[in-house]
Amino acid sequence: MEKPNLKKNQELELNIEDLSYEGKGVAKVDDFTLFVDNALPGETVKAVITRVNKNFGFARTLDVLKESPDRVHDIDAIYAQTGIAPLSHLKYDKQLEFKHDQVVTDFNKIGLKDITVNQTLGMESPFNYRNKAQVPVRQVNGKLTTGFYRRRSHDLVPMENFLIQDTKI
């Protein structure tokens, strides 16, 4: 496979075919794989390439041109910036299917094809379940501010509701 002529910061339209084990959308450009943040299978997105490696690359969604019926809009986009809830844009029942399929795939990869994997058990509410957190604190404009780091950086994204953390935290 020859790597297509893709460059960092190049914008292109992509059809998302699958989800990676990290929950990134998977698109192909001339059989070259791109992993796309904030994209779901069945979507067409306008994306910008953020990195190109020898065998695969990464991109970030700029706009969703054709939306998946499994996309959720009621979660604040701030969580997608930090990566603390990488599947928050996917309906909860589809998240459970995704997790089940990941276990089946992992078993298949190591030759355990005859194992029955039960469906993933869900919760009444998929929020506020974590009871431990390491929350960065920074001084911003003379005031202590909590939040989480923007993906792949040490830039603080200020927030007070951590979505998946127990509210007592």
CATH architecture descriptor name of the domain at 11-66: Beta Barrel
CATH topology tier name of the domain at 11-66: OB fold (Dihydrolipoamide Acetyltransferase, E2P)
Number of strands: 8
In this structure, how is the largest beta sheet organized? 5 strands, mixed, barrel
Query: What percentage of amino acids are in beta strands?
Result: 25-35%
Order of helices and strands: EEEEEHHEEE
Structural class: alpha+beta
Helix content: 10-25%
- CATH class label of the domain at 11-66: Mainly Beta
Instruction: Note the overall shape.
Output: globular
Q: What would you report as the Rg, rounded to the nearest angstrom?
A: 18 Å
Tell me the number of helical segments per DSSP (H or I, 4 or more residues long).
2
- The name of the CATH superfamily of the domain at 11-66 reads Nucleic acid-binding proteins
Strand order of the largest sheet: 1-2-3-5-4
Report the span from N to C terminus. Answer: 49 Å
Poorly predicted tracts of residues: none
Average of the residue pLDDT scores: 88
Tell me about this structure.
The chain is α+β, with helices and mostly antiparallel strands and 169 residues long. The protein has a domain at 11-66: Nucleic acid-binding proteins (OB fold (Dihydrolipoamide Acetyltransferase, E2P), Beta Barrel). The protein has helices spanning 78-82, 92-109; strands at 11-19, 25-29, 32-37, 44-52, 56-66, 137-140, 143-149, 156-158. Strand 6 (137-140) and strand 7 (143-149) form a beta hairpin. The mean pLDDT is 88. Keywords: Methyltransferase, S-adenosyl-L-methionine, Transferase.
